[in-house]
């Protein structure tokens, strides 16, 4: 007997998957259709539905993992975890759940207090900021950010503008992404960077259905930075992608600031996702003084 049959994520699945994510307030990037759809090929993501519970798995063979199940009102989160155990046992794979938030961890513990190991996955903690902090950049803790922002504005006065992303500039944005990639391919994980490029292309190719919000910076008639996000829950926007030419001082601060000012002033929080353990990215995200983190844990069985 095959337990839980997984399939690829199709655009026509969006209303079904969205309905699961709207059942309660989720803070993590995993709880958006756009994340799953855009990254499904690089991360080999699939989904399944059974008895008002949705399951998401990633990877292959003994390296695959699941994220905690999403349950509707009439579905059971704990039964979902038990069904996961059955699936791993049937396939002979070691039980591994990733992306487990503290709230999900507490619920999992109620199944068996001493059965699981909970290991903090710091590289995948998501950074959540107060929107007004990112807009105002007030006080000493944001002094350097404001200095860089003002330097850019003064240096390039009259030679730059913020523009919303529309179909007309998709190709220009991908050119900016290529510029960024060429400057990073030797120092970062090339496979991860190519996966991200594919994810961005998927978003552009399906923009009308996914309905993201995007903004870009044009300098001297060329797109040099862009950012793409969406609403995550009723008070939080999430930034999925942000690319900026690192050789232009203040440009990173400008795209960060302008995107929030133009697209998300009505929100309370901005989730800027994880740092993946990349030292430079971690330093950058820490330097914006996050309000809190969406903590994540890996869950395995105790030996």
UniProtKB/TrEMBL annotation:
<dbReference type="Pfam" id="PF09924">
    <property type="entry name" value="LPG_synthase_C"/>
</dbReference>
<dbReference type="InterPro" id="IPR016732">
    <property type="entry name" value="UCP018688"/>
</dbReference>
<dbReference type="InterPro" id="IPR024320">
    <property type="entry name" value="LPG_synthase_C"/>
</dbReference>
<dbReference type="InterPro" id="IPR016181">
    <property type="entry name" value="Acyl_CoA_acyltransferase"/>
</dbReference>
<feature type="domain" description="Phosphatidylglycerol lysyltransferase C-terminal">
    <location>
        <begin position="29"/>
        <end position="297"/>
    </location>
</feature>
<protein>
    <submittedName>
        <fullName>DUF2156 domain-containing protein</fullName>
    </submittedName>
</protein>
């Amino acid at each position: 007997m095959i337990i839980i049959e997984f399939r690829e994520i199709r655009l026509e699945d969006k209303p079904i998957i969205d309905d699961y994510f709207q059942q309660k307030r989720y803070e993590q990037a995993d709880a958006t259709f756009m994340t799953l759809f855009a990254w499904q090929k690089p991360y080999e993501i699939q989904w399944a539905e059974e008895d008002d519970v949705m399951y998401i798995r990633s990877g292959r063979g003994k390296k695959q993992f699941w994220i905690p199940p999403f349950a509707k009102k009439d579905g059971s989160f704990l039964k979902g975890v038990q069904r996961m155990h059955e699936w791993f046992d049937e396939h002979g794979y070691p039980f591994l759940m990733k992306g487990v938030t503290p709230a999900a961890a507490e619920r999992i513990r109620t199944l068996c207090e001493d059965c699981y190991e909970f290991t903090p996955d710091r590289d995948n903690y998501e950074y959540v900021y107060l929107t007004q902090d990112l807009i105002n950049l007030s006080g000493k803790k944001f002094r350097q950010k404001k200095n860089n922002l003002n330097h850019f504005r003064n240096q390039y006065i009259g030679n730059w503008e913020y523009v919303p992303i529309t179909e007309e500039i998709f190709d220009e944005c991908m050119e900016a992404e290529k510029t960024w990639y060429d400057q990073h391919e030797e120092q970062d994980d090339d496979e991860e960077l190519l996966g991200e490029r594919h994810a961005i292309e998927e978003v552009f190719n399906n923009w009308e259905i996914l309905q993201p919000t995007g903004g870009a910076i044009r300098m001297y008639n060329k797109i040099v930075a862009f950012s793409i996000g969406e609403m995550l829950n009723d008070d939080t926007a999430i930034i999925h992608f942000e690319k900026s030419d690192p050789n232009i001082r203040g440009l990173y601060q400008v795209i960060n600031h302008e995107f929030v000012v133009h697209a998300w002033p009505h929100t309370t929080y901005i989730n800027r996702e994880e740092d993946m353990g990349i030292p430079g990215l971690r330093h950058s995200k820490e330097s914006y003084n996050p309000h809190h983190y969406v903590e994540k844990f890996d869950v395995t069985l105790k030996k």
